[in-house]
Design goal:
Order of helices and strands: EEEEEEEHH
Strand content: 35-45%
Radius of gyration: 15 Å
Number of helices: 2
Length: 121
């Protein structure tokens, strides 16, 4: 079940973001809001700690699917994670995980994310 992480660092832009974490499934949801408090996008991060991926949705751009490159090791390590384009989206798996985790979200947010995912199934 998603639990909201409180006191999330906010970017220096108009609007805000919320961050939700499932303490059982390797799944996170980040939601961006504009200045009017309307959702301007979301990101589902999955397979956390084991081949992490991010599925990002923005109204005008649609979906983008990326793997998370966590950087390199060694004495000159670069551990800044970056998103790199990745292949096929496991839609059915993501929908199942989101459905399992989303009952704690307010209905408008749950419906928005769920409907966007279902469109691509």
């Amino acid at each position: 079940m998603f639990k909201e992480i409180r006191n999330v660092r906010q970017e220096r832009v108009t609007g805000r973001r919320r961050w939700f974490d499932d303490d059982v499934l390797p799944l996170e949801l980040i939601v961006w809001y504009d200045a009017r408090d309307a959702v301007e996008g979301f990101q589902l991060c999955y397979n956390l700690g084991a081949g992490e991926h991010a599925l990002t949705w923005r109204p005008r751009a649609g979906f983008a699917h990326n793997a998370v490159d966590t950087g390199t090791g060694g004495p000159f390590a670069n551990r800044t994670p970056i998103l790199i384009p990745d292949g096929a989206v496991p839609w059915n798996e993501l929908i199942a995980q989101f459905t399992q985790s989303c009952s704690s979200l307010e209905s408008a947010l749950r419906d928005l994310v769920g409907s966007r995912l279902a469109e691509k199934k």
